[in-house]
Input
Amino acid sequence: MKYADLHVHTTASDGTVSPSGVVELAFGVGLAAIAITDHDTVSGISEAQKAGAELGIEVIPGIEISTDYMGHDVHMLGYFIDPDSPELEPVLSWSVNEKNIRNQKIVSSLKNAGFNISLDEIERKHPGTVIGRPHIAAVMAEKGYVTSVSEGFERYLSEGRPFYVPRQRIAFADAVEFIIRSGGKAVLAHPLQYKFSQQDTEKMVSLASSHGCTGIEVYYTGYTNSDIAYLLKLSEKFMLVPTGGSDFHGDNKPHISIGQAKVPYSVIEQISPQAHS
Ligand code: AMP
Ligand code: FE
Ligand code: FE
Ligand code: ZN
Output
């Protein structure tokens, strides 16, 4: 049986493994395909596809976008988007600009509190990367302020923590529309990460479906058999394709390995733009 991991981050956003590096890892664990789903950027896709062509791994072009869903940060995946679509540029550069403004605010309040951290230093270290809180947390870990990226979030950077700064996000429905306009298919990411009640989760999935989403992530790192059974039921109820992936980020989420959550290769055919919906 052929398998695919449809949720992978690279150094183009907040992963620590390069686009060709993740393809090599996928090859190493015997996957047939992966999707590159970096936050707010498509810049890792071409390098990954080149490596994929050499190693015989199919690389699906993808993206992950943070949306605003009733004030919550809900993530939307886009698959088979055209990286050269003129629709992409304005939305992604707006989003990256919002992130940059926010990064500046976070770093300057960290500085004021006595942390020896500068955004210049972070940017120099990650050329061509969409910088976000994980890069700030990583530098805090390097300097010994915290022991891991996730401790950086838990102590300082997550919502409700002292250095949290909100940012503007694209509306949930607009993100679905934007992915479709860019030639892609939208899939609601990790529906259980938002800690909604079952009733609210169902409402979100129902809205995703009515706005034109093609699928929801059912197989995801850490989801138990009962989580999966619950999400499968929702996918059937709202006629959504059950997709899945690991959310690999390299050392930024060291407990996750590539292919840890995966789906049969046939799922790709169900979410491809050629599929009948
Ligand atoms: P930002 O794009 O700056 O809002 O950062 C959000 C990203 O940080 C998410 O997409 C996650 O990949 C990552 N993240 C959030 N919480 C954690 C955590 N506890 N440990 C590691 N990474 C995290
Ligand atoms: Fe991330
Ligand atoms: Fe996500
Ligand atoms: Zn992700």
Observations:
- The chain has a mean pLDDT of 97.
- Residues 159 and 165 are 8 Å apart (CA to CA).
- The beta strands are 3-8, 33-36, 58-69, 72-79, 170-171, 185-188, 215-220, 241-245, 263-264.
- The two ends are 24 Å apart (CA to CA).
